[in-house]
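HUMAN: Now follow C-alpha cell order:
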Amino acid sequence: MTPPPIPARLLAQEEIEILDSACQPRPRVVTRHDIEHDVTALLKRGLTTTSAGGFFFIPYLLQLGASDLVASLGPPKTEGLPKERLALGLVFEAIFGYTAGIRTVDTVSRADFGLLAGLPFLPSPSTQYRFLQSVPVQSALAFQTALGQRLVALGHVTPGYPVNVDAHNI
C-alpha cells in the first residue's frame, strides 16, 4: 500500500534562522512537512519539560479561536513556518519571559519551549521579527479588536471596564 502523496504546499521550503544549543542563530531550511514530522517524533519519544503550564494554556487559545484570528494577519503564507505557530511562540515568549541566559543553562527547555508553539526548535528573534514586520498595523488592530470581542462574548472580560492592551509589538 502506497502512502498518499504529500500536498505541494507542505513541501514549500523556507530558509529561517533557529537557535542552536548555545542559543546562537544558525540557518535552516524547513518545510511544513518536516516540522510536522519532527514535532510528532518528539511527542512520541516523550520529553521532560519545565514549561508544562503552557500546555494547559493551549485549550484556552483554541476556545478564543486564536488560530483563525492569526491566520487573518497579513498576507497568506504557504511556505515554511506557519504564521500561527510564530505568533504562538511570541505569546509563550511573553508569558515565560524567554532570555538567552536561562536557555543556555537550561538545555531541557530549548525543545519544549519551541514545542509549546508546535515547533521542534526555537526560532531566532530575527525570524520572529520578520513575521511581525509582515503584519500591517491595520491587520494587527483588527486582530486585537476581534480578540477583545471574543473575550467579551466568552465572559472573560466584563464590558464597561477599561482594558489596557500592551501593543508594543503591533
Q: What stands out?
A: Residues 17 and 127 are 6 Å apart (CA to CA). Confidence is low (pLDDT under 50) at residues 101-108.
